[in-house]
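Continuing from the previous page of notes. For each protein in this section, the sequence appears first, followed by its structure tokens. Read the first protein now.
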Amino acid sequence: MANFLLIHGSCHGAWCWRDLIPELTALGHRARAIDLPGHGSDLTSIADITLQSYADAILSAIDTPVTLVGHSMGGYPVSRAAEQAPEKIDRLIYLCAYVPKGDMTLAEMRREAPYQPLMPAVIRAEDGKSFRIDPSMTRDVFYHDCPEGTECYANTRLCAQAVAPQETPCPLGANYASVPRSYIRCMDDRTIPPEYQVTMTEDWPAADVHEMPTGHSPFFADPGGLATLLSQIAR
């Protein structure tokens, strides 16, 4: 049995794992999700949100070692958490997520991708400190292959995303390197180009790289298939 801790991506919250958690539980695992600061039911103000506060929230939620799953933007805070406390993490699993690279910020990595499918949907706040996703475009970028009604469920819960964590580099060292890691590429992703997911993992051992034929939200599009794959990786 694995102990999964699920970390959401930009603008999302623990709510996005709604369908996956029961699938993992049915396979005999423990699974839970948290809201990062400023997401879901956490009311931290945009001005107080940092990449470090994300990592702190993750580490505070871990009582016994976990298989830590980071989705999309969540790849950065789970990596930082692993660098700070590798003893708390059995394995990192990146789910169509950004894997920190050198001193690059997440925003720089996004711009390094061959194209920018998410940017037309981004609505920036006037002060430049946060952004939201145009609700009329969430199906196109996040949920195009998900069950009918998914975007309606999500649009009432998607929140503003602080920019500061995405403009902060995440240098990694020996602590991070000591933690086993796996990657799940989503090959019909319309948020992070699949080609860039391949680029991020092209030098990884083949046994640690997996693929799903879904878009950016496999936890809605194929929660059963995702749970099965996560279970296999954890074993």
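Done with the first. The second protein uses the same format. Note its length before scrolling.
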Amino acid sequence: MHIPAWVLPQAGTVKNLQEYLPIMSLNLTYTHVNKIFGEQSKNPVHALKDVSFAIEPGELFCLLGPSGCGKTTLLRSTAGLESITDGQILYGDKDMTLIPPFRRNIGMVFQSFALYPHMNIFENVAYGLRVRKTPDDIVRKKVTEVMELVGLTEELKRNPSPTGLSGGQQQRVAIARALVYDPDILLLDEPLANLDAKLRRYMRAEIRRIQKATNITTIFVTHDQEEAMAIGDRLAVLRKGVVEQIGSSNELYTRPNNAFVSNFIGKMNFFNAKLTGQGKATIEGTQTEISVHPENVRFSTNKGVANGSSVLLGARPEQLEICKERTSEGIRGTVQIIQHLGQFVRYEVVLDASVSEVSMEIDMPYMVEGVFERDSVYVKVKEGLPFLFLPEVRN
């Protein structure tokens, strides 16, 4: 993988690298993939359920979902570390379903880094090349290039054990080791989970910079929605082995398919409501009728959803507002917590029990004058902006 230093971007300056880089990337396709653990047991676990989608060549694709949703199982199946029950996994046009892991030419980065403390960082990065019996001169050349790519040239000159590096530097060594032998696919299994919050934010940008410089088709697994939104070209949200929705972070945030996706990508406040007409619903326990933009109605009202049917009205924190004075559209509640978060102020408000059993989060662009914790306030839903969903289990 020879990438001249002059084409490598600084963090945050990635653009149109493909016109400089001749590296060919593979698409990755899943066709009706199922994985059942303990298929012959009394209590089999259907970890992946008819998973079918494609990842584009050179794409940085995120698998996102709560614990137990199947994202790591799908990643391990892609690597060949788990055999699938049925279906197909294709690298490009080649069916890799029955190909063992050591024949798949993948690079994998684990949550634990998995570096060898008894080896210096050069030998850690070179390990995959040594296993492939690569000549020494090529090993030196490729290790030097990939360490330049991940920004560890000075550390390579010192060449300490990985234990002499910071957490972020160790993570970059692990990424370099995965890239040095030119893998067809790069797989990252929650690689930032062991880093502190500030370093995680920095490494997000670094991982995206490195991936765009190499143009390798990459899967990034995480349960952190903010991390996935910051890193991924596209995201797949999984729940109980099912792919609920695939799209860009903006598509998933602004056009979620259902209540689960809406509450997993960002925060969503929910109100039980009754449908009163096309795109209109009345919040239960109040006389407040809310109009919703047609694009935000996440079901077809002509398919058995009649007026009077129960629905969920979903409003993001920025789609609510706090009023100190009583209004006809306001819902009474009590402020529990006020957090000033820089660009906005978040109010956590418990509404009357007849309206909601959980607290609401409201983001205001400023401190509401005269409103303090434990004060009574009125929460208003902004007209037209919220979503309407069919009722479902949201956790």
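What the second structure shows: The radius of gyration is 25 Å. The first strand starts at residue 28 and ends at 37. We return to this in next week's lecture.
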